[in-house]
Amino acid sequence: MNTGNTRYIAIIGHPIIHSLSPRMHQAAFNQLHLDYCYLPFDISPEKLKNGVEALKQLGFRGFNVTIPFKEKIIPLLDQISKEAAIIGAVNTVLIENGKLKGFNTDGAGFVESLKKKWTFSLKNKSALILGAGGAAKAVAAQLCLNQVGSIGIVNRTRKKADQLKARLKKHFPKVEVKVFARFGDDLDCFLKKAHLLVNSTSVGLHSGDDSPLPSQFFHKQLKVCDLIYNPSMTSFLKTAQKKGCSFINGRGMLLYQGALAFKIWTGKTAPVEVMSNALSLA
Ligand code: ATR
């Protein structure tokens, strides 16, 4: 039951109906008997500023930010974390003493999900990222923060891949970053030596979507990650499976970014298993 002491957390996005975060976080609050309530809000883009101001005025403890506001939210915040500044996007906001502090837990959540599946160190490893949107930015920056040696980027729109490369080079001059314009021999060469292959495009979200990478580019040694979690098996992951690769979908990233956000708002370690169970019921 909500009381005068209840602390409120929101998630803002557009659309928001498919978000699994409310069930995941509410299960965690309930498990730890915290008087917190997590509420989804669909805010149209022109109302973002007023919406955020309303959360502040109503005394919300914080909120998650999802598509399409992860970048647009930044000018509305009082400060942002080092990771969020490097990534250029915010997915978690803490409201403290009337100040809005932005964080990005997506990248760290992604790396945490890798660590839970595989024990290898990312140091000096090589990764190919498909896509150059918001999710790609978080993944690429976090891989660099974990000292990967080289990153390859392939994106439908070349310009966005070049922009991501420039951003990474600015913050991590020692990391080798290559943009591949097409599925050709040089990409094949890069992938033969790569350790990690990540799909951060939205290709696979819809039934009937093909793999965003043709099957001849997969090889058994690659650890393959799709950031998509629904469906749990995309064509991309089915191809990885057929080729004998070890793979994960995006459910771990969703879970661990949530666990990190939970800690930011409550100061408590998240009950990850309860959150994971809440997600499996979806
Ligand atoms: P998110 O925040 O989830 O990363 P986004 O920023 O809209 O979402 O990025 C979506 C990514 O999927 C982009 O890299 C996009 O490629 P473009 O930069 O060319 O738009 C990629 N993408 C979406 N639909 C695609 C398609 N049909 N084929 C290839 N790439 C696609």
Our measurement of the CA-to-CA distance between the termini, rounded to an integer number of angstroms, reads 23 Å
Give the neighbour order of strands across the main sheet. Answer: 2-1-3-5-6-4
The main pleated sheet reads as:
6 strands, mixed
Determine the number of helices (DSSP H or I, runs of at least 4 residues). Answer: 10
Average pLDDT number? 96
Features of this protein?
282 residues; alpha/beta; Rossmann fold; six-stranded mixed β-sheet; 12 strands; 20% strand; binds 2'-monophosphoadenosine-5'-diphosphate
Write up this protein.
With 282 residues, the chain is α/β, with parallel strands linked by helices. 38% of the residues lie in helices and 20% in strands. The protein has two domains: 7-104 and 253-280, 3-Layer(aba) Sandwich (Rossmann fold), CATH 3.40.50; 107-249, Rossmann fold (3-Layer(aba) Sandwich). It is built from ten helices and twelve strands. β11 (223-226), α8 (235-242) and β12 form a beta-alpha-beta unit. α1 crosses α10 (272-280) and α4 (106-117) packs across α5 (134-145). The model has no long low-confidence stretch (mean pLDDT 96). The chain binds 2'-monophosphoadenosine-5'-diphosphate (ATR). 2'-monophosphoadenosine-5'-diphosphate is lined by residues 67, 131-136, 155-157, 160, 200-203, 212.
